């Protein structure tokens, strides 16, 4: 592993490609698949920022390499901002996208349209280890919109089929990957982090 | 139906008995079973107070009799106060206590104990129709506590088996009905409403 490698604390190939694209491929990137013994970091934080930092710190400590981690989710007005940090395990099991989506649809079935406002939020953290201490940054990106009741589109993942971003007639599951990146919470957070990454590593 | 009857907008016999006990049986009480054609009132409000008033207004308008309605739920810190007004349908179907309880347990499985604070909240509304207008009151009762991870007790209903009220070693499902009434959100709301009922009807 070259010393100038940046670790992205994820096993998700799509996130790796997205960050590489945003950074302009100028920096070597490795995912968690390159570190089979890396610890599993439970997302016990109360906020996206806390969880992104938890994960980035743990992986930076393990790899001794600059590390980016993100945490994201969907915040629904009618649910006081939940599923929020529990978005990926809303129906009880981690990562069961279909169960999470269907549970949320059922929960808001009697909620009037006026309270279906929602936003996707992503916090992205960068931790650069240095001689026993570390420098840390965390930024957030958001995209505002509202829930629709009947899913549309087969792209994206998670709650994308029921999320209509403000100003668009397509759900984020109906957009091309490039169009989604341009407005998405993760795209925005990663783009905000990019200059901090290049500034701290180069 | 005598003109001095008070309607409690519920089909729940337990609630009827509880309100009768608190009012000292001085007032004739009828549940919704006495009004088979009464409308179903969707609980579309954003707050317990709004839902209790929605229900009391609709039933008072239908019966032209003084009407009490309540709405209650469990507000969990780690879920930004949810399940809240969605407590009875948290897992998607109305009134599936077991599914609701198990979903909530799964959702908080990674949440640290420090954020398992929770409270039961009940809003009770009284609507007294009078010549095309109506007088309205709404009061709330709360009981503070915290969630436990493994259910205990077979009394009560809903989330009682995982709710430990502050200052007690028993869940509300392990308490006798009288002990629970003495501290419960619904007991407190109904007791707060009692003098308003007797004052407005006698």
Strands of the widest sheet of chain A, in order across it, are 2-1-3-4-5-6
Gap from first CA to last CA of chain A: 17 Å
Protein chains sharing the most extensive interface = A-B, 24 and 24 residues
Described by strand count, sense and barrel closure, the largest sheet of chain A is: 6 strands, mixed
Give the amount of beta strand of chain A, in percent: 15-25%
Number of helices of chain A: 5
CATH class of chain A: Alpha Beta
Residue windows where pLDDT falls under 50 for at least 5 positions of chain A: none
Radius of gyration of chain A: 17 Å
- Structural class of the secondary elements of chain A? alpha/beta
Average pLDDT, all residues of chain A: 92
The total domain count of chain A is 1
- Described by its quaternary structure, the protein is homodimer
Number of strands of chain A: 6
